[in-house]
Structure formats: structure tokens, C-alpha cells
Amino acid sequence: DEGIVIAIDGPSGSGKSSTAKGVARARDLRYLDTGAMYRAMTWWMLEHQVDVDDAAAVAEASSRPVITMGTDPSAPTVHVDGHDVAQAIRTHEVTGNVSAVSAVPAVRERLVAQQREIIAEARREAAGIVVEGRDITTVVAPDAPVKIFLTASADARAHRRSREVRSSDVAATREALARRDRLDSNRAVSPLTRTADAMELDSTGLSLDEVVALVVKLADEAG
Ligand code: C5P
């Protein structure tokens, strides 16, 4: 019996990570934050002084970093070449450069292949996995039995993200989010898009527990 795959896409600050972790914990599934993998790749490029606006240079370097993901939803981890980069990938510098790196096709090919391996392993060895990102419902796991497009109003997303990064400047956070969403939604390869068969869930005005309960219900219905 193969484990279930729950695919969650959505813009920055829509609550994907908290929702995905909550669902994985509730149903004893593994958890994969694909955004952390693009951030880890970006961190490595910055560390190695690769010009992230030079797509050819990024493509050429993209096979070098070894990115390792821990998929326990209660203690997810991310390592690059053995370094724990959980904190380092959340800096403004990484956040400001990740959209450029994630738009490079060679980067996506490599990380999507790794994501599919992690999913296959979780389906064999666990009850399944919750995977969150921008192209999970469209590219990484289009056959997932549960596909969700999680949204929230621009206001709700800016407030949520401001709390996460402990910034009191909600306007600046809103600007940065809008910029990243614009880049992620308009890039040539695997842009953030909602497909007709993904269930749209607007988390504005819902508590985290309510959103998690809704997704768990969909997963239970899917078998
Ligand atoms: O989810 P998070 O905001 O950490 O993602 C960081 C960035 O990684 C996104 O802004 C996007 O550029 C990229 N990303 C992507 N495809 C995914 C997940 C994230 O391109 N599946």
C-alpha cells in the first residue's frame, strides 16, 4: 500500500508551512518544505559568490551543493554540504535573491528530481507526505489525490509574514511579498498557478486549526 501525497501551493505568507506541518502531524505524515530547498540553493550561490542574476552561471553551479532535507514535521531540517542552514536561509539576503535562482530551469530540474525521490520514499516507507511550494500541484506531484491552492488576502499575508520575521514595518513586508509573488507568478518555468483540479482554500479570517482541520478532512475523504 502506497502512502498518500498532499500537495499544497500558494503565494508567500498564505500559511502553507504552518498548515502543511499541522496536517502532517495530525495524520503522522512526513513534511517537505520545497521553498527551503530553493532557499538552500540560493544560500550556497551567495556563499560561493555566484552572480545570481547570471542564469548561465547559476545553472552551471547548480549541481554542486548537496542539499539534505529532514522530513519530520515536528523538527524539519535542511542542510547544505553538511551545514545546518535552517536560520541562514531565512535572511533578507536569501529571501531577496531566491526568486532569481528559482527561475533558472537547471535549478528546478535538479530540485524537482530530488523532491520526487523524497516523495517516493515517504510513500514506500511512511503513511505519506505533505509537500508545500509553488509548483507541487502542477509539476512535482500533479497526480496527488489531494491538491490545495492556499490563499489569503494581501493584508493577512503581510501581517502574518511581519510577525514571522519580527518586523513592525508591515508596509515594507507587503511590498517585498508582492514583488516576490510577481516574480514567482510570471516566470517562464513552472510559475505559481492554480489548476482547475486544485481546491482553492482562502485562509483569511480562519485560524490555523480551522485550516488544518479542513485539509485533514479532504485527505480523509481522499482515502
Ligand atoms: O515558500 P518560500 O517562501 O520559502 O519559498 C521561497 C522561494 O522559493 C519562492 O519565493 C519561490 O521563488 C521559490 N519556490 C519555487 N518553487 C517551489 C517553492 C519555492 O520556485 N515549489
UniProtKB/TrEMBL annotation:
GO cellular component annotations of the record: cytosol
InterPro entries cross-referenced by the UniProt entry: Cytidylate_kin (IPR003136), Cytidylate_kinase_dom (IPR011994), P-loop_NTPase (IPR027417)
Extent of the signal sequence: none
GO molecular function: ATP binding; CMP kinase activity; dCMP kinase activity
Pfam families, per the entry: Cytidylate_kin
NCBIfam families: cmk
Domain named Cytidylate kinase: residues: 6-219
EC number(s) given by UniProt: 2.7.4.25
Annotated binding of ATP, by residue: G10, P11, S12, G13, S14, G15, K16, S17, S18
Keywords: ATP-binding, Cytoplasm, Kinase, Nucleotide-binding, Transferase
GO biological-process terms attached to the record: nucleobase-containing small molecule interconversion; pyrimidine nucleotide metabolic process
Catalytic activity: CMP + ATP = CDP + ADP; dCMP + ATP = dCDP + ADP
PANTHER family in alphabetical order: CYTIDYLATE KINASE, CYTIDYLATE KINASE/PANTOATE-BETA-ALANINE LIGASE
UniProt-annotated stretches for the region Disordered: 1-20
Primary location: cytoplasm
Protein name: Cytidylate kinase
UniProt similarity note: Belongs to the cytidylate kinase family. Type 1 subfamily.
Organism: Marinactinospora thermotolerans DSM 45154
Subcellular location: Cytoplasm
Superkingdom as given in the UniProt entry: Bacteria
